[in-house]
Amino acid sequence: MLTWRSLNLIASKLTEDEALIMLNEERVGRKRVVVLERLHQIYSAKRTARERIEILNEATNDKA
Predict the structure, then answer these.
(1) pLDDT confidence of residue 63
(2) Distance from the Cα of residue 49 to its chain's centroid
(3) Residue-by-residue DSSP string for 6-57
(4) 52 near 21, Cβ under 8 Å?
(5) Cα–Cα distance between 14 and 49 in angstroms, integer?
(6) pTM to 2 decimal places
(7) 14 with 22: CB under 8 angstroms?
(8) Any residues with CB less than 8 A from the CB of 34 and at least 6 apart, and which?
(9) 62 vs 28, residue with greater confidence
(10) Residue 32 CB: number of other CB atoms within 10 A?
(11) What is the pLDDT, as a whole number, of residue 2?
(12) How far apart are CA 31 and CA 6, in angstroms?
């Protein structure tokens, strides 16, 4: 069972895909609002970081 404390301990180690899986599992499982919010924050931060890297890579590759 995922607790608030255990979620915060593993948050930085999760991949984007793992965070999305956990978010979707919570959405159909226990539906705890604070856990859903935190998982969404984790997922969104990881997705944003990936997208930013992709955009910046495109920008630097276009200049070459």
Answers:
(1) 65
(2) 10
(3) HHHHHGGG--HHHHHHHHHHHHHTT--HHHHHHHHHHHHHHHHHHHHHHHHH
(4) no
(5) 13
(6) 0.86
(7) yes
(8) 4
(9) 28
(10) 13
(11) 80
(12) 17
How confident is residue 4, by pLDDT bands cut at 50, 70 and 90?
confident
Decide if 23 contacts 36 (C-beta within 8 A).
yes
pLDDT digits (tens, 9 = 90+) for 13-58: 999 999 999 999 999 999 999 999 999 999 999 999 999 999 999 9
List of residues 6+ apart from 11 with CB closer than 8 A: 38, 42
Q: In the 8-state DSSP scheme, what is residue 2? A: -
Phi and psi at residue 12, to the nearest 5°: -75, -15
pLDDT at 3: 85
* CA distance linking residue 32 with residue 22, whole number of Å: 12
